[in-house]
């Protein structure tokens, strides 16, 4: 089976977040909440966009 050559690119949008230690099996909930709070605009924009598309489709598709 041929090996895949995958480029490891650094994602610039996550550059400000620190990586957890490799041997930690715990979830830092405060850190998770902080990351979600920082991304709240993107999350709300995505939810709003899908809600608008759903409403648009529900009005445009014929009822059976």
From TrEMBL:
Transmembrane annotation, as ranges: 43-61
> Where, subcellularly, is it found?
Cell membrane
Q: Which UniProt keywords apply?
A: Cell membrane, Membrane, Transmembrane, Transmembrane helix
Extract one GO cellular component term from the record. plasma membrane
InterPro entries with a match to the protein in the record = LPS_length_determ_N
What is the protein's membrane topology class?
Multi-pass membrane protein
The Polysaccharide chain length determinant N-terminal domain is annotated at: 26-63
UniProt keyword Membrane present? yes
Major place of residence: membrane
Stated name of the protein: Ferric enterobactin uptake protein FepE
């Amino acid at each position: 089976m041929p090996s895949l050559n995958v480029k490891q690119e650094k994602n610039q949008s996550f550059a400000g977040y620190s990586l957890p230690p490799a041997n930690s099996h715990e979830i830092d909930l405060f850190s998770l909440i902080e990351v979600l709070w920082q991304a709240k605009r993107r999350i709300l924009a995505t939810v709003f966009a899908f809600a608008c598309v759903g409403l648009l489709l529900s009005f445009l598709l014929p009822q059976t």
